[in-house]
Amino acid sequence: MIKIESLSKSFNEKKVINNLSLEVQKNEVIALLGPNGSGKTTLLNMIAGLLRPDSGNIYINNIMVNGTNGTKKVNLNPFERQIGYVFQTISLFPHMKIQDNISYGLKSLHLSKFEVKKRTSALLDFVGLREHALSYPSQLSGGQQQRAALARSLATEPQVILLDEPVSATDPQLKETFRLELKKYLQTLEITTLYVTHNLSEAFMMADKIAVIGNGHIEQVGNRAEIFDKTQSTYVAKFLGINIFEGKAVKEQNGLLLIEINGIPLMSALTPEFVGKNVTITLKPEDITLLTKEPVNTNSDNSIIGVITEIVQMHSTAQVTVDAGFPVKARIAFTTIKNLGITVGDKVYMSFSPLSLNVFSDTEKRK
Ligand code: ADP
Questions:
Q1: Is the minimum distance from the CB of 216 to ligand 1 under 6 angstroms?
Q2: What share of the chain is helix, strand, coil (3-state, %, to 5)?
Q3: Is the pTM of this model over 0.85?
Q4: What separation in Å is there between the alpha carbon of 71 and the centre of ligand 1?
Q5: Closest protein CA for atom 24 of ligand 1
Q6: Which of 29, 163, 237, 355 could be 244's S-S partner, Cβ–Cβ 3.0 to 4.6 Å?
Q7: Same domain for 224 and 277?
Q8: Which has the closest alpha carbon to 337: 311, 314, 315?
């Protein structure tokens, strides 16, 4: 497991990691998701022992590797941490054959020649590079080099592995295959993994749980449904392209919660503790239906009117921005736009279920 408590790190007075806490349970794969520059590599480097935190504690399998234990300051060397690390830029030794790159880390373990050979051979098979054992890194494709780097980091049988954008060096057309292979490896290995990516679909494909990093800390941790449907942070909603509104929870009404956004009344699922409070509301663009006529008899669905300000086609769907006094993004099939015959400047009704409104109190904002 990896346990991080209140970690902070500044570069030239700029706080890159700010009071960050995160736990990865034994054998769990967590994707660390965030835009470029959000501090992902900095965090990995601190876990691996390549960079010293300013403050905070890091534990690997319940052993403190960084931190303060009473009056004692702890800062274990990278090789004492039992961590495998696959860097974003491939870090194979160019003058060494693939098999020697893979067995490199085993030297420090003082194993017998036979044992080194056995482990290296098994790893070559594992990553499918047996026929390239005697090749040099430059003779391999980007994806193969990544696999060799993975094998090298696994050679010492670490209990924790850190993968920093491990698919980035792979040719675009091979990315998908490599991701699937890597996922299979990680499942077979049953190894605690922190998988860094800035790519949303990759994060959801590789891991069951996602930790979104932003503003120097973990903004939200959860599975796909929790992150998308129960967004708990403005930052996460923006990062995922989800609508985010500021409003007020007015009162309970017919078992639902009456909220107001810009003076427009809407119904959401009831969360009694919010009544009378300012709240933040998220709504996924794909949960909105567009109509050209006012909906009748909608089984208490919300309906708001607005004017289309933009239509952006994305593959088979389109993102339609509607000005309803505040901007709302809807995602609908492109064929639906054609069928409705709508275009920029047209008046539309947006319909959505009370259950698709996620209401929360943005604690960051209210500090
Ligand atoms: P990510 O991996 O999410 O792209 P990084 O951890 O690489 O982000 O960087 C986070 C921020 O810290 C960036 O603004 C970067 O410029 C800064 N940074 C990283 N390493 C250093 C360093 N050694 N010296 C100064 N600034 C750094």
A1: no
A2: 30, 40, 30
A3: yes
A4: 30
A5: 11
A6: 237
A7: no
A8: 311
